[in-house]
Amino acid sequence: MSTSLIDPSGDVWPGATQELAKRLHASLSGDQLTDYLVRNLGWAHVRSGTNVFVLRCRPALMTEAALVTLLFQIHDAASETVYAIEIVCKGGASQLLRDRDQVTNILASLTAPPSAHRFWRGQRFIASELPADASPFGKVHQQIQNLVAQSDDLERIAPCISELLGTRWSISEFDQATADWKELFNGGGFTPFNPSYSSRTRGAWLSDYTDDGEYVRWVTANRRRVSERRTAEFADVDAIVTFKRVGEARLRYKRMSLPVVRNTGERAILTAAVTDNSIDLRK
Predict the structure, then answer these.
(1) What angle, rounded to 10 degrees, do the helices at 100-110 and 64-76 form?
(2) Around Cβ 213, how many Cβ atoms within 10 Å?
(3) Nearest to 189 by CA among 66, 78, 44
(4) What distance in Å separates the CA atoms of residue 10 and residue 120, rounded to the nearest whole number?
């Protein structure tokens, strides 16, 4: 099984290595260091293997950034995964679960109330455009456009799109009446910050994903720009987004916004994302 530690900044470390102990100026090492970090500093300890996800954490001390990274890892696990959760607290508690949404609900309910407003300052949403050849989506975007243009059944081609892009993608169109984006289909791979959104592959609205109106307007501006230019846009994104269940979360990902034309002649926008926590546009 692979081992990792998630620190309060949301960064992932390959266990309690000598390098980590040196960086922390710690006299402890190995399992003792891991136990200290989890119990006293709010780190999360993850061990994962084929269809197994073992988590040890103390949610009362975890930050929103650590929780968000943990949710990404949970949601990236295979659908058959069994989750063994040990909550470090007075008296202790352990659970064996198969439902990832249930795991998410438990962790979010136990994490301390959001405090990120104390720490994040300045611009909340930052995007830095990339050339196509610097994006993981740059080599396949024309193939995606052709797939959408040639098919009248998005559900039928969804597996092909997911094979090319991963499962964090959606095709949506702007609804003038509600001034919101309605999803025609999505790949089902978005992290379940809001299960009522992530459990639907059709008919969800952008505003269902988050009640953060500023983020919705920011995304809308990007999609409108791409729609008007009728050219693909690739970018690194570093965004601070508010979610009811986890507070403010720092989302760092590579994004593609792609104008597509369906075989009915209707225009829509396909967006795709892949998490990349090495992105830091706040330096």
Answers:
(1) 170
(2) 10
(3) 78
(4) 14
Strand partners, 238: 126, 252
CB-CB contact of 104 with 71 (8 Å)? yes
The number of angstroms, rounded, from the C-alpha of 135 to the middle of its chain's C-alpha atoms is 18
CA distance 43 to 60: 11
73-87 residue pLDDT tens = 888 888 899 999 998
Retrieve residue 211's tokens. 């009640």
Tens digit of each residue's pLDDT (9 = 90 or more) over 158-178: 999 999 998 889 999 999 888
Alpha-carbon distances, residue 18 vs 6, 51, 141, 148, 215 (angstroms): 16, 29, 42, 50, 40
The answer for residues whose C-beta is within 8 angstroms of residue 48's C-beta and 6 or more apart is: 1, 2, 4, 54, 73, 77
E runs forming strands in 7-124? 12-13, 44-49, 52-57, 82-87, 93-97
Report the distance separating Cα 144 and Cα 189, nearest Å. 18
Task: State mean pLDDT over 232-241.
Answer: 93
